[in-house]
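Self-study notes.
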Amino acid sequence: MKIVRLVAIFLVFLFISCSKDNPERVRIVIWHQKPPGEREILEQAVKRYMEHHPNVKVIVLYKETEELRSAYIISAIAGKGPDIVYGPSDQVGPFELLQIIRPLEEIFDTSFLNQFDHRGLLWYKGHLYQIGDQIGNHLFLLYNKELVKKPPQTMSELIKIGKELTKDFDGDGKIDQYGLVWNYTEPFFFIPFLTGFGGWVMDSAGNPTLNTEATVQALKFVRDLRDKYKIIPRECDYNTADALFKEGRAGMLINGPWSIGGYKKAGVKFGITRIPKVEATGLWPAPMVSIKGYLINVNVDEKKLPYVLDLFKYLVSAEVQLELTKSLGTIPTHKKALENEIVISDSLVQSSIWQAEVGRPMPVVPELRAIWDAMRPYYQAVLGGTMTPEEAAIKMQQLAVKKIEEMNE
């Protein structure tokens, strides 16, 4: 009995010891701002990775975009922070300025980098700082197939279809169904119209280019969609537009790849196409196109770096990227994934790629934040009826110049 008791005690001790984390395991921390659908795929990928690498413990922490940006800056400057950061490409500029992200061409060989579409590699000031797991983050036109049989190819067609679909079914004076909805009060969602009329936010040196005829005409056009053609709601933020489309109360919607999973889940029968061409200029609206992807903290020490690189390679692999595409309709950056039947046979993904082909790369310079902040109040003033488009274009430019000067002091 004494021997049996000793064996039992030994087995209990062994079980407790094995159940604890091995103190020799390498600990890798990832901060990200992935939305729910992407978040689940990341967590599943990390779980699979750890099953095959029992000596590695990966901790995945979600943070809102702005929280992630500020917290990472503070921690990295102090020599700490996560090992890997995931987010949109526009955070590269501020991080590079502070020298808190590592140039990737110094640690990944050419054969590895050549596996990716060039659009998935973010080079800035002569260095590669980010590898994307998806191309896009861009806007396109979604249409409800039960309401729109043939999607518009021009803005005139969009207005015509929009008028036919905007209806007050019960005669109470309130619109029950809209032709078009989108988060039109935010500058990012204004960009396709600005580019459709031939404008852009900055020149090659990062100087704002907002006081132009293109800006004026684009502001007038968006305002006319609401006030003259009456095909969009009087007020419409992101959540309102999203809900109306999910409920089948909007024929068309301007949104991005991040929204596809939600509309599939809601059971909406929808298609994707380019935002219609502006006849006055002959231009397709060009949304900002960027990548979302991974960066490496400059503070990762040399002993830990090989483990971080191995995990990094797995997270941007064709296997993981195709999981994103299957679930959410994202555009992969890995060439093998782009050539996979999952991508080729998905009409939604192919339509998203078609829109991205006429998009413009989102600037990653820090000045873009100042430009967004300068555009917003005057853009919204035009929509609020307190300022003309001509006045707004002048004010946007003046405030953007001022904010950039203050930022560079």
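Second protein, same conventions, sequence then structure:
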Amino acid sequence: MDHFDLRDGVMHVEDVALPEIAAAVGTPVYVYSTATMERHVRVFREALAALPQPPLVAFAVKANPNAAVLATLARAGLGADVVSAGELLRAIHAGVSPDRIVFSGVGKTADEMTLALRHGIFQFNLESEPEAEMLSEVATGLGMVAPVAFRINPDVDAGTHAKISTGKSENKFGVAYDRAHAAYTLARNLPGLKVRGVAVHIGSQLTDLGPLEAAFGKIGTLIDSLRRAGHAIEVADLGGGLGVPYDPALPVPPLPAAYGEMVARITAGWNTRLVFEPGRLIVANAGVLLTRVIRVKQGVNEPFVVVDAAMNDLMRPSLYDAWHDIRAVQPHGDRFVANVVGPVCESGDTFAMHRHMDRAAPDDLLAFMTAGAYGATMAGTYNSRPLTPEVMVSGNKWSVVRARQPIEALIAADNLPPWLATETA
């Protein structure tokens, strides 16, 4: 459920009409609903209420690192799953307590490890033996002890897009399942490390609980064997990845309640504190990308609806062939089949082909739905297009939470080398 609906023929986000935001801020612009995020947090927590220990729910910051989004989720009680020093600092700045932060990612640097240790994070999820050795060296150099888990690659096919699958043996993530005991033995013998957990994450946008259940089952078996080998396993990080409905024509992904029931059943008897890393599930349906139609160009078959949003604003369709529902902000009741494209000079700047949608005309506003996750955070400045602004709505109030970047700022960021600066002076 989200809080984007039609009132008197105009799409609103909570109690604010989208045309009001477009008129004040311009387009394209991302618009987020506070009420939707808060509801998704509540539903996810309720789904896990039967667990014997309160879990740590750590929002995957990569899904949407906007400070207002992170502050909203921090106030709702979420921690943070981070994969860089930048995400760590963003989370702390937004009010997330460091002892509720998990640091994941395959390429942590010594500087990032130092920063995280000094802030006192909850746990490092190690993804290789060399990473454990580096963290040991950093921690001992600081006279500190790092709490760690190894991320285990269970070789389970998540059944999702190849570019967001992370749990197969050929993926770059984690330690291979059959090397787990050797990795834990190494870590136990390294100074400066406190081994206390196991982590797993097999992919994003999962629409079937079967792969998750298979992966968690393997992790449960591993926890038993690690304990028999003398390792104190107190934490099990089960990652995120539960999908959200993008295409209304497809079956609805499993609801959080079904996920929670499966987790409680599979983890019964583990005697661990569970950690979860939801991202898309919390913020995807809480955001839309609002865009304006520039013109409608007749193609050989269907017309091209050219909008002012582009692939640099929302990369998912170009990168993953991702599907986003495209709705008219003020629908007239007519429908047609069209191709929706942006102004960037790439054939890949295409949002939808042969799409049955509300009929659009020049100057109409369209909303790309379910755009709150992996939207603004993946945006770039290709074709010298400034970064997209972001707006947060709460009830009848709204605020710009990231302003549109002026083109002058892009130009000013470049520096001419001395020999050119002299010639152009």
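Instructor comment on the second fold: The first helix runs from residue 18 to 25.
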